[in-house]
Amino acid sequence: DAGITQSPRHKVTETGTPVTLRCHQTENHRYMYWYRQDPGHGLRLIHYSYGVKDTDKGEVSDGYSVSRSKTEDFLLTLESATSSQTSVYFCAISESSGQIHDEQYFGPGTRLTVT
Amino acid sequence: RKEVEQDPGPFNVPEGATVAFNCTYSNSASQSFFWYRQDCRKEPKLLMSVYSSGNEDGRFTAQLNRASQYISLLIRDSKLSDSATYLCVVNMEYGNKLVFGAGTILRVKS
Fold first, then answer.
1. Which of A61, A86, B12, B88 is the most exposed place for a label (fewest CB within 10 A)?
2. Sheet strands (E) in B2-92
């Protein structure tokens, strides 16, 4: 299995509080991604990173920010959590971009509940 | 229209059955295609990439039809352990942004 960990694995927080999720990889892969997964939807891309300090928005980026200060860590921050951000969050990594058949590998997920 | 569409199922099949899933995609310029498997409350795991010529891995066969913009996954001799959600995944024309279908649920019963 790819060396990807996420922390915390579960979190319950209150509306309006800031929350930071961490993704850590030991594969030295260039690309890292944050997705959310909700019933009835496929995984949806929130933000991704193509290198240290290089990030870009995905499909559902509103209300989220990211940072990547080291190759191995990619942080997802909810500045002011809302109930609509209750979801399961997955981090993924891939070796490079623009390559055909460039697979992504996923971390174990973080289950976030905003009350 | 969704970019990647799958029949959500569930497909309920007996052990030993052959089952096939289809998936359609909207972007004709899509370059690469995958099937992922996701167990309940777990992360998606890559099952197989889908190549233009079709490819097989043991009991699993994946095929791509670019003209009709669909990919398929065939599972032969189903096992109880095949019970999972199967995600159809398509790479966009450029970059490495994957678009995921909502998944097809497979339940294999004894």
1. B12
2. 4-6, 11-14, 19-25, 33-38, 44-50, 55-57, 60-65, 70-75, 84-91
Q: What angle do CA B30, B35, B37 make, to 5 degrees?
A: 150
On chain B, the residues whose CB falls within 8 A of the CB of A103 are 34, 46, 49
Cα-to-chain-centroid distance, residue B22: 7
**Cβ-contact B7, B105 below 8 angstroms:** no
Chain A interface with B: residues with Cβ < 8 Å: 31, 35, 40-45, 48, 58, 90, 94, 96-109
DSSP A79: S
Q: How many CB atoms lie within 10 A of CB A75?
A: 17
- Per DSSP bridges, beta strands A31-37 and A87-94 are antiparallel
Per-residue pLDDT tens for B54-101? 899 999 999 999 999 999 999 999 999 999 999 999 987 655 678 999
The vertex-B42 CA angle with B74 and A73, nearest 5°, equals 120
pLDDT digits (tens, 9 = 90+) for A34-89: 999 998 888 999 999 989 999 999 989 999 999 999 999 999 999 999 999 999 99
Q: Are A75 and A68 in contact (CB under 8 A)?
A: yes
C-beta of residue B4 within 8 angstroms of C-beta of residue B88: yes
- Asked if A48 and A33 touch (Cβ cutoff 8 Å), the reply is yes
